[in-house]
Amino acid sequence: MALSADESGRLAGLLTSHVDQVTQRWTEVVAGQLRGRLSQAELRHQVQELHRALVDALGKGLTDLAAEEGTELRAVLAEVSRGQARQGFSAAETATGVFALKDALLSVMEADQSAGTLRDYVAFGTLVDQMGLFTFESYVRTRESLIADQAEQLLELSTPVVKLWEGVVAVPLVGTLDSARAQVVMERLLQTLVDTGSPYAIIDITGVPAVDTQVAQHILKTVVAARLMGADCIISGIRPQIAQTIVALGIEFGDIATKASLADALRHVLRLTGVETGRRQSRREA
Amino acid sequence: MTSGVDLSRPQAQTVGSDEDVVRVRQLVRTVAVAVKLSLVDQTKVVTAASELARNTLVYGGGGTVEVAAVDNGRRPGISIVFADSGPGIADLELALTDGYTTGGGLGLGLSGARRLVDEFDIQTAPGQGTRITITKWSR
Ligand SMILES: Nc1ncnc2c1ncn2[C@@H]1O[C@H](COP(=O)(O)OP(=O)(O)O)[C@@H](O)[C@H]1O
Ligand SMILES: [Mg+2]
Fold first, then answer.
1. Tens-digit pLDDT profile for chain B (139 aa)?
2. What is the model's pTM?
3. Domain range for residue A254?
4. Which residues, 6 or more positions from A59, have their beta carbon under 8 angstroms from its beta carbon?
5. What is the CATH number for A79?
6. What residues flank ion ligand 2 with Cβ within 5 A?
7. Complex ipTM value
8. Does A249 touch chain B (CB under 8 A)?
9. Cα torsion for A141, A147, A153, A159, to the nearest 10°?
10. Are B99 and B44 a contacting pair, CB within 8 Å?
11. Which of A8, A63, A140, A156 would be A175's cystine partner, CB 3.0–4.6 Å?
């Protein structure tokens, strides 16, 4: 427990009777730390919102932030730290926004000795500490999910067509292959086949998290288009879980060569071209 | 948001665009990992969800998907409901036939999704929309 019931009541009283001084000083301290990166109006609104939630919670008899009475207050704290995490404030800046309440309480209690004792101040401080730590945790959770979201978005970026070997181009597909991207990939691949005169294309799906029927259909169409241009396609990077899923779905790749890895696919192509070179040589010898 | 999913209650996702289908996949993946499905089973249920969510979008005219962590007392699992108020399916047997499509697809979405999961329940009628529930248990 952070506070006794009496202390909780006295803190509520102090916050209500000195509402202007507390929010004023609180806002000043935070503004000094953030140096104008949050507008004065936004900041004042945030402080008033926290002040209100804290007074409400104390009014319900809050003695510990983790308790039932603290639900609303925790929601407001989480909202504030989510907002700051998204706006790029540091974890320390976000938490000190809450810790600044201590400065505000101190200046009010110094100016008005009847507002509470030193013992009260220390007790109030432990509740503020709980609030600060909670803010810190919410901040970290928000940042973690932001990072996860960005990683997903990176995966969705389109991928280039590369010349892997003389006569062999490769398209490493990464992320989601929706219709729009599939179209871009197919066009680039066909253009590269023309530009390089390559007879072989390897479509690598190592980076595709799930091959559903739409992805499969896009790949099949690309293979057919490449064939019409005289190029043979090999599909590589079929991981075991993808292979099992494709089989269960009932997708058939027909006579299209498939390989487990890009290296296997390249080896396969080189063997094919090696055989042809061999044949040509023997013809010359004959 | 993909991480920090609250497993204690079902997570809802509206399906109104291609991006939403991607979101459904990501949500299903997160819950499938959380209930400890194997990598193969994660991939299967994510793929089934991708098929059914796309059907919700394309044929159902959009709808909602609800993903829940479940437990049958012996094993944890993932249960997903796809609901739309589109035209419904008149001939279910035909729609569940491999290769049958009215939209120029591969016609393997419904039938394939059924093979990818442990439980598959479908409620549909012309003009009544379509509601599909799938479940995959961890082994
Ligand atoms: N939610 C739905 N509402 C109405 N019709 C549907 C729905 N889902 C599937 N269908 C019908 O079932 C057919 C088969 O679906 P599916 O196996 O996914 O193949 P595909 O998506 O390739 O057409 C669809 O072409 C469509 O006519
Ligand atoms: Mg389909």
1. 445 678 889 999 999 998 899 999 999 999 999 999 999 999 999 999 999 999 999 999 999 999 999 999 999 999 999 999 999 999 999 999 999 999 999 999 999 999 999 999 999 999 999 999 999 999 8
2. 0.64
3. 162-285
4. A12
5. 1.10.490.10
6. B 55, 109
7. 0.94
8. yes
9. -150
10. no
11. A156
